[in-house]
Amino acid sequence: MRMPDKHAFLSPSSSERWFNCTKSAWLCEQFPDLGSVFAAEGTDAHRLCEFLLHDMLGMPDTDPRPGMTYYNQEMEEAAQGYVQFIREKLEAWKAKGALPTVFVEQRVDLRAYIPESMGTSDCVIIADDEIEIIDFKYGMYRVPATSLQLRIYALGACELFRNLYDFTRVRMTIYQPRLGAVDEASMDVEELYRWAAEELKPRAELAFAGQGNYSVGEWCRNCRARRTCRELAAHQLEIAKYEFTEPPLLSDEEIADVLGRVDDLVSWATGVKEYALQAALDGRRFAGWKLVEGKSVRKFTDDACVAARVEAAGIDPFEKKMLGLTALEKKLGKRDFQNLLADLVVRSQGKPVLVPVSDKRAEMNLASVEFAAENDMKEVNNHE
Fold first, then answer.
1. Which CATH number fits domain 12-209: 1.20.144, 3.90.470, 3.90.320, 1.10.1740?
2. How would you class 128 by CB atoms within 10 Å of its CB: exposed for 0-12, middle for 13-18, buried for 19 or more?
3. pTM here?
């Protein structure tokens, strides 16, 4: 068996997948990691956090902002907030009489539990009997502090520092500025090591050897093999058993089953179509399908020339309209937006939407929904 890439195979960032679906590790090796704009944006944000944190701690570093592709005011505020968050933690420890030690972008060795695996913790703080691992997430997908990735980083930090410091408790913190979310979890160091020995190491060894089982779950979302995975296809197509049943004739239990699958089904089916299109462009043929040219779109070859000719004909070719709320907030930055326009912003009640009970949003009061609907109807009648 070929030795896997040390930097990509069984990485902490993909641990939710290979821990739960051990056979997926080698399956994903057949597909290239194409990256994404979101990943590149996150890389810039992490680098900015590193620089600002070094600056706060009085450590030398080079300002990366001039060379960043995705840097903007929103990223600046998110990174500044992260640094302020850590500053407040350090001040809280000092107020207790402790002398916290901080490590930024700390490299950790995970090979005692995960074959050929390394990782980097965004920030590690050690004070008194506690070690804290803080992970900065710039994305819009909520990640809990109990995530496998953060627990693995915590394990790596404990391995690195346990012979140098006398900590007995480990704290794991996720900081997600774009969601306005901070999540924390903690456990005894002994409990962390017991989990690593009894659960993490055996699963990692299975994944590294290409053994174990396929398993479908939320971790399929970022799996490179999701578009052609037979296990995922079988799971998604289970919904076909309801194909010839009218929705009103389904039981509440059956409807709940459909609700739990339909979004993933649509996402999976869309992924299959995208994969098939690319495969067809690469020369593969699928029975009953062919490539054709899609709808064409007209466009000008020279906007400046078009504008000049239209103006010469006595017509203004331009339109002017105010930027939308989100665009203005991004342009001004959240702080200036709040100071300048907060009194002119109103938030309407969101439309009802069904979500799993695990969603952290409060359940809607049906009476308030009916009241809002009645008010909307009265307003319509008044206009009429």
1. 3.90.320
2. middle
3. 0.68
